[in-house]
């Protein structure tokens, strides 16, 4: 029985909108890790090939398969077993550096596997509201059809409201009965004052906002029961709502004189400019949904008993509901071009009989077992006919700090930015221009709405003729294009400097991310601040969440969490660059460390008639990979090729990272050649200079090997850090100190002689000096791009 209840509960959970709009997270693996895996496979093939060659040169004498396995064990240092450990420790260090960066406070690294991805990004997919904008709404415009009020004329609205309620305060009745003659003759044109009053009252009533009063005295539960006798002081009141748009509207009605002072499940109270309290009983509420794009409320005026149905919503949803007018569509477009978020407000007066009829049908529909949602929606839609259009509101969502320079920096870094938003096309286009996602001089191609394959084909052909222009496309048109012409559309869109997708659902956002990954093979990054961005963040190669007003869903689901959009510039240009460059150098050096000692083993075996005898045994092999070389090699995680200020000043340097030149088969082969050269020099040099006992060969070659490794780290480092110097001398000190008790490997009397010192020095110089000369010549005649800036 319990199990059945749990299964039913899980079934209902899976059918909720939030769950259906999310997807299961994937295990993210960085591109650098995949590249290192390929190189490790190549090293494994080299190990097998070298072992087979040695057995072949032996002539397959005796039990050759036994010798084959012995050679596999002898050359096993070719496989960099410590690579994974060093890289994981390095990733942890990068995460710690990011979180300790004072220039991006509040940044949290929630993954320890993909910090290098920050340096390889080609596509950045961003949400609009709360990501590029602050999600702090400010009321900017009220349009009544014949007259429009902006921020500079709000005082006129306030005076109209004051006059309207002061005239009615002389009567003992509410303001509504004075307008009853207009209800019986709706064709009579209302005065501007009356229309303003109706519009403001509708905005003050049609919402899901609750005023909250903080307890000054600190007595718990004091405000919970103080409803009628509550001190309605402005400084003690805050508004709570699921949408910042609604809070902005209610705050605006307060600023013009009509204040929401109390609300519970059954009623709400408004305070007039004169201090009079108006009570309205809430009869029904129809909450906002992404499908209906509108919300409604039915209220009864306590004083007059009049029942009114108020509704507000998006213009595309409300245009078919309100009475015919010739200005709504045009003014919505005008406001959207100014970057304002628009809401249409309408009302309908109901008689007692009409409401009772509606209530009985509505309750019956809610009790239906089959198609309940459809039946409830049908009953509500029966009311949504020929509603009186009251006003059009415009709310501005301000841009976040430094969004424009950050987007410009990312664009100069070669990152293509796609904005995916649920807002309407005009608003999204305006924000794209105001944020400089699309430059003022750049052409914008608005993809016309398409519903069929033929229309999509024609529109794609028209778009194909455009060059270097930003693309703006709606979610519906995008769905049609991807259904019939997926490859063609993605190919054309990827050529655009910027793409804006409006009216996108959360699942569409994730689908777009996967399309870019599949068709381009490039690394993608998604950034958002709300629960509707979680699917996109989890689908991207690198997900970044912003802690905003919509909660921490995106922040907790992301790989990296930041507090402001502008922090993404430093996160990518500085930390992304350093993480990738350092891991590439660290990975290749660990491989070099294994290759060089394997080369020495191969030379040693070749000289002694391909004998499968180890060159170094016991503690020497353990110490080589740990205390003798570990600290200097790991100190490469502190290296940087350019200063952070320079990386931010010249974001063009980031373009080189996306080409993957720091770690490729070319650089890998260079390190292989270096390892073969140095291993050969060290071993042949020691064999040429050894005197009579084999122990001298071990002492000379191993000491020269340790010195060569320390010098090679110094050769690789581009910017010295004091910890690097400490690591070099600490390793050298550990080695010198260990010579005293490694009597079974070293002849203490011999290693203290001048002969030992000059032989080791000679071999080390021959193995390292040519590489230093080559590095100097390369920097002189073919310097990398960053060195031109630092010189």
Automatic annotation (TrEMBL):
Binding residue positions for ATP: 127-129, 246, 288, 312, 341, 421-423, 503, 509, 532-533
List of catalytic residues: 127
Chain ranges passing through the membrane: 42-62, 68-87, 590-612, 618-638, 668-688, 694-715, 722-742, 748-774
Topology in membrane: Multi-pass membrane protein
GO BP annotations, alphabetical order: endocytosis; phospholipid translocation; retrograde vesicle-mediated transport, Golgi to endoplasmic reticulum
P-type ATPase C-terminal domain residues: 556-783
Cofactor: Mg(2+)
Record keywords, A-Z: ATP-binding, Golgi apparatus, Lipid transport, Magnesium, Membrane, Metal-binding, Nucleotide-binding, Translocase, Transmembrane, Transmembrane helix, Transport
EC primary class: translocase
Superkingdom per UniProt: Eukaryota
Keyword Nucleotide-binding: yes
Reaction equations catalysed: ATP + H2O + phospholipidSide 1 = ADP + phosphate + phospholipidSide 2
Residues that coordinate or bind Mg(2+): 127, 129, 529, 533
Annotated localization: Golgi apparatus, trans-Golgi network membrane; Membrane
Main localization category: Golgi
Region feature (Disordered): 165-190
Record field: compositional bias (Low complexity): 165-178
Database matches in SUPFAM superfamilies: Calcium ATPase, transmembrane domain M, HAD-like, Metal cation-transporting ATPase, ATP-binding domain N
GO molecular function, one term: magnesium ion binding
PANTHER family, per the entry: PHOSPHOLIPID-TRANSPORTING ATPASE IIB-RELATED, PROBABLE PHOSPHOLIPID-TRANSPORTING ATPASE
Alphabetized NCBIfam families for the sequence: ATPase-Plipid, ATPase_P-type
Family to which the UniProt record says this protein belongs: Belongs to the cation transport ATPase (P-type) (TC 3.A.3) family. Type IV subfamily.
Protein name: Phospholipid-transporting ATPase
Lineage, highest ranks first: Eukaryota, Metazoa, Chordata, Craniata, Vertebrata
């Amino acid at each position: 029985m319990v199990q059945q209840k749990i299964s039913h509960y899980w079934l209902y959970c899976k059918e909720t909108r939030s769950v259906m709009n999310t997807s299961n997270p994937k295990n993210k693996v960085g591109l650098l890790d995949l590249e290192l895996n390929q190189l490790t496979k190549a090293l494994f093939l080299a190990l097998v090939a070298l072992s087979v060659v040695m057995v072949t040169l032996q002539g397959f004498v005796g039990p050759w398969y036994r010798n084959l396995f012995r050679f596999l064990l002898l050359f096993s240092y070719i496989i960099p077993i410590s690579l994974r450990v060093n890289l994981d420790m390095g990733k942890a260090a990068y995460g710690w550096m990011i979180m300790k960066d004072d220039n991006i406070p509040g940044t949290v690294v929630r993954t320890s596997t993909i910090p290098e991805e920050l340096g390889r990004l080609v596509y950045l997919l961003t949400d609009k509201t709360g990501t590029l904008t602050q999600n702090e709404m400010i009321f900017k415009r009220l349009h009544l059809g014949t007259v429009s009020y902006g921020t500079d004329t709000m005082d006129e609205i306030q005076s109209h409201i004051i006059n309207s309620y002061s005239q009615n305060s002389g009567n003992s009745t509410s303001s509504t009965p004075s307008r009853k003659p207009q209800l019986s003759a709706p064709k009579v044109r209302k005065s501007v004052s009356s229309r303003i009053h109706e519009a403001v009252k509708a905005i003050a009533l049609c919402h899901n906002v609750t005023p909250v009063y903080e307890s000054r005295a600190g007595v718990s539960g004091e405000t919970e029961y103080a409803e009628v006798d509550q001190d309605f002081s402005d400084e003690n009141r805050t508004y709570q709502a699921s949408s910042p748009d609604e809070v902005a509207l209610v705050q605006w009605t307060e600023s013009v004189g009509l204040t929401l002072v109390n609300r519970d499940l059954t009623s709400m109270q408004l305070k007039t400019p004169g201090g009079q309290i108006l009570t309205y009983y809430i009869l029904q509420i129809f909450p906002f949904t992404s499908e209906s794009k509108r919300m409604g409320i039915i209220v009864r005026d306590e004083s007059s008993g009049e029942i009114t149905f108020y509704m507000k919503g998006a213009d595309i949803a409300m245009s078919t509901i309100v009475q015919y007018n010739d200005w709504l569509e045009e003014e919505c477009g005008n406001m959207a071009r100014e970057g304002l978020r628009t809401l249409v407000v309408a009302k309908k007066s109901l008689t007692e009989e009409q409401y009772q009829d509606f209530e009985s049908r509505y309750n019956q529909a809610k009790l239906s077992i089959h198609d309940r949602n459809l039946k409830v929606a049908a009953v509500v839609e029966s009311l949504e006919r020929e509603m009186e259009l009251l006003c059009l509101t415009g709310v501005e969502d301000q841009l976040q700090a430094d969004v424009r320079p950050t987007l410009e920096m990312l664009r100069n870094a070669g990152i293509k930015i796609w904005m995916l938003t649920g807002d309407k096309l005009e608003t999204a286009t305006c924000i794209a221009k105001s944020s400089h996602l699309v430059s003022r001089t750049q052409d914008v191609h608005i993809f016309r709405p398409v519903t069929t394959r033929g229309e999509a084909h024609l529109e794609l052909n028209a778009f194909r003729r455009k060059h270097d222009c930003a693309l703006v496309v709606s979610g519906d048109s995008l769905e049609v294009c991807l259904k019939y012409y997926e490859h063609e559309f993605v190919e054309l869109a990827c050529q655009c400097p910027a793409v804006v997708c409006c009216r996108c659902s959360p699942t569409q956002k994730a689908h777009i991310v996967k399309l870019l990954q599949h068709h381009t093979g490039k690394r993608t990054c998604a950034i958002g601040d709300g629960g509707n961005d979680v699917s996109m963040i989890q689908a991207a190669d690198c997900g970044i969440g912003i802690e905003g007003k919509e909660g921490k869903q995106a922040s907790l689901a992301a790989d990296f969490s930041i507090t402001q959009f502008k922090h993404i510039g430093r996160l990518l240009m500085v930390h992304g660059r350093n993480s990738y460059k350092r891991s590439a150098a660290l990975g290749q050096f660990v491989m070099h460390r294994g290759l060089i000692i394997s080369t020495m083993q191969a030379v040693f075996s070749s000289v002694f008639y391909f004998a499968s005898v180890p060159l170094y045994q016991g503690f020497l092999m353990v110490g080589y990979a740990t205390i003798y070389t570990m600290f200097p090699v790991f100190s490469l995680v502190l290296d940087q090729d350019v200063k952070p200020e320079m990386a931010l000043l010249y974001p063009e340097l980031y373009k080189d990272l996306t080409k993957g030149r720091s770690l490729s088969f070319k650089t890998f082969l260079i390190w292989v050649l270096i390892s073969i050269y140095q291993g050969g020099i060290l071993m042949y040099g020691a064999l040429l200079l050894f005197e009579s006992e084999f122990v001298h060969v071990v002492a000379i070659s191993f000491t020269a090997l340790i010195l060569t490794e320390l010098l090679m780290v110094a050769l690789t480092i581009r910017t010295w850090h004091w910890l690097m110097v400490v690591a070099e001398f600490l390793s050298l000190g550990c080695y010198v100190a260990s010579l005293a008790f490694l009597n079974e490997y070293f002849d203490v009397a011999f290693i203290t002689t001048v002969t030992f010192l000059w032989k080791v020095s000679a071999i080390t110089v021959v193995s390292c000096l040519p590489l230093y000369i080559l590095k100097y010549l390369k920097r002189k005649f073919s310097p990398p791009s960053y060195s031109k800036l630092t010189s």
